[in-house]
Amino acid sequence: MLVRVEHLWKSFRGVPALRDLSFELPPGKIFGFVGPNGAGKTTTLRIMAGLTRPDSGEVLFDGIAVTDYPEKAFADAGFMPDTLPEASDIEVWEYLDNFARAFGMPEAARAEAVRRVSEFTNLIGLGGKFLNELSKGMKQQVSLARVLLHDPALLLLDEPAAGLDPRARLELRNCLRRLAAAGKSIFISSHILSDLDDIADGVVILEKGRLVSAGERTLLQKEQEGHKSSVRVLLVFDAVFEAPPEALRQIGGIRAVKKVSARQWLLELEGAEEQFRMVMQEIFRSNLPVVGMSRPDLGLEEIFLQATKGEVQ
Amino acid sequence: MANVLIERLSHSFADQINPVLVKELRQSLHGKILYMNLLMIAVLEILSVYAAVAAELEFGGGRRITGAFAFYAWVFAILSLVSPLSVLMRWGNERQTDGISPEFTTALSPAKIARGKLTAVTALFLLNLTAGAPGLLWFLFRCPVWHGGAVVRVGVLLLTILFWGGAFTAMIPPNRKNRSTGTAGAGLCFCGAFFAIAFASVKPPVEISQIGYSAAWTIGCVLLSWTALLLTEGAILPEMANRFWKGKTAIGMSLIGFYFLLLLLGLTPKRSLLVWSLTTMVFAGGLAMVAAIAPFHKTRRCEQDLPRWTVSRFFYRFSANRVIPGYLFALFFLACGALILTAGTTAAIPSLQWQETSLRSIDGVSALGCCGFFYANCTLILRRWMPRTNPIALLASVLLICNGINVLGAIHETQIFTVVSPIYGLLSPSEALPLMAKLAGGSFLALLLSWGIPMKKAPQIIHQ
Questions:
Q1: pTM above 0.80, yes or no
Q2: Which residue of A has its CA nearest to B176?
Q3: CA B293 from centroid of its chain's CA atoms
Q4: ipTM, interface predicted TM-score of the complex
Q5: In angstroms, what CA-CA distances link A243 with A88, A261, A291, B89, B154?
Q6: Sheet containing A15-25: which strands, arranged edge to edge?
Q7: Closest-CA distance of chain B to residue A95, Å
Q8: C-alpha span between B225 and B219 (Å, rounded)
C-alpha cells in the first residue's frame, strides 16, 4: 500500500506541531521516523491512524484520504500508541479476543486470529495471564499482537522499543523483520536509532514539525555524503612526539589531530570529497608515515545528527 | 439438527453482543469488587431481615419494621452503586493511560463504546438489585404502608445518576498528572445518590396517584438517561468526527428533560410556576443572543457523516452548527415560558389575587425575554449581510445602538427612542410586552426573509 502524506498542518492551541509535512512511504518497506522530542512524530502517527484531524493537508492510503475517511485507516493500518495496555482484571487472550470482536470477526475467525497473532508474537502460554501481571516487554508484545489481529497492510508503531530491555528489543526487532518479510509496510518512530539502523530501509526525519529529510536510506546517505563526510588517517612515527609533529601543522584542511600514543597520531579530516583528495595528496607529498585510513559509513545516527540541529518546538 | 441450530443461534447472538459490554463484564467477573459487593448486600439483607423479625416478635410489627426497612433501603441503595461505579473508575483510568485510543482504531463507533460502557453499568446495577430483591420484597409486603412507588422512583433515579456519572467521566478531559477522572465521576454519583434518594422518597402530592406519579418520574428519568448516553457519546468522539453535535443535542435535551421533569413532578406551586416561566423567557432571550454570535460553519466531516435515518439526519443537520440549534432551543423555551405564563396568569391569578404591581412586573420581565430575541434577530440579519465581521462586534453594535438612542429620549418626549431598550420594558411594563413581542416577531420575520435573499458566502476557515 502506497502511503502519501501531503502538506499536513496541525497546531495545538496556537502552537504549531506540524508545518507543511509531506513525505511518501513505499509499500512493503520499513521506514524509521525520527526526530527530537516534541518534533511532532506522535501527532503525525495519530493523524495517519485516523485518530487526529489535521488543520489542513491529507494522508492518502492508495489514493484515498484517510483524513476524510478514517475507516480506511482503521481497516488498512494498525496503530500501536506509545502507551502500554494497562487494563486490569483481564487475561491476555480475553484482551485480544475483545479487540477481534471489535473488528467484527465472527467466533471462528476470532479464535484463529488470536491463535495466529499469539504464535507470531510468542504469546503462546501467556494467554491465561492477567495483562497487568506482565512485564513491559510482554505488554509490548500483546500490543503488537493486537495491532496484527485484523492483518493490516501498514503498521504505525509509536516508540515501540521505549523502556524495553535489550533482549525484548532484540525480540521486537526480529518480529518486525518477519513482518517486513511478510510484505507489511512498517512506519516506526523511535529514539533508539541503533535499533532502527539494523532494520530500516528508509527514514523520515522531522524537526520542529518540519520535514528535514525523507527517503530511502541509500539515497539519504549519498545526499549527506555529498555535503560533508569524514576520514580518519592513522600515522605511526619512528620518533616519539609529545606535541603534534611540526609537519602536520603545515598541512591545511585537517580538522583535528589526536594523540593515540607518543608515536601514533590520528588525523580527522572533514569536508567534501574534493577537499579530501587535496589534503591526502599533501600528506603523501610530505612523506608522513600513513599506516591506515578509514571512512565510516553513515548510519542513521550520523544522518540524523547531520540533518538536525537538536531544536524542539 | 436442533442442537446445531441452537448452537448457531447462540454463536451468532454472542457475536452480536457489544464487545465493550463483554470486556467490561469479563473484567468485573475477574475482579474482587463485584463479589465483595454482592457479599455485602447479602449480609445487609440477612441482618436487616433478622433485626426486623426479632423486633416483630419482641415488640410487634408496625413502626419498627418500617424503621428496619428505611435502614435497609438506604444502605442497599448506596451499596448497589459500588460495582457499577467500578466500571466508570476503570474507564477513567483507561482514558488516563490512553487505553481508549486503540478502541477507536477498530470498527467500533463511539456510540457503541458509550452504549457498551453504560449497558455494563446497567447490568451490574440490575445484578445488585436482583441480589437485594428478596429482602426488598420481604420488607415491602411486611410494611404497614405500601412503599413500592418510592422504591421504583429511587431505582430509576439511581440508574439515571449512574448514567450521568458515565457522562461526567467521559466529559472530563483525561489528565495524566491528576487523579483519575473515573474517581471524580464515582464521587459525583455517590454525592448525588444521597440527595436523589431523599428527593425520590418524598411523598407525591395527594392529588396525584402513586402510579401516575411514578410513571411520570420514570419517563423523566428515561429521558435524562438517554440524554446522558448522548452526552457520553458526544464527549468521547475522537477528533476526526464531528464531536459536538450529539453533545449539543444532549445539552438541549437535558434542559428540556429537567424542565418537564420538574413540571411533571408538580412540586412547584402555582406562584412559583409563574416565576419559573418568567425565568425561562429571560433565559430564552439570553440563549438567543448567545446563539446569534456562535460560529456558522459546519465541519467537512459533518457533511460526510450523514446518518441513515431521516429523523437522525434531521437532528444531525439541525446541530451541524451552533447557531440554529441554539436559536431553536431559545424559541422552544420562549414558547414554553409564554404558554405557561398565559395558562398560569389566566388560571392562577384569581386564586392568587395578584396585585397590579406584580402583574406589571410579570409583563416587564416577559418583555426582557422578547428584547433579547430582538437583539439576536438583528445580529443574525447583520451577519447575513456582513459575514466577515466578528459576530460579537455585531451584537455589541446592536446593543450599543439600541440602548444608545435612549439619550435621544431626553431631546424629545416620545418613547420611540427607548422602545428597543430593556429600560422601556422596566419603566413601562404594561405597554412594553405587546410592543416588544411585536418587535421580536417582526425582526424574526425579517430574519426569515433575509434567508431567501442571495448574499455573500460565509468566510472559509483557512489554517496557517
A1: no
A2: A83
A3: 23
A4: 0.72
A5: 65, 11, 20, 70, 92
A6: A15-25, A3-12, A56-61, A64-65
A7: 8
A8: 10
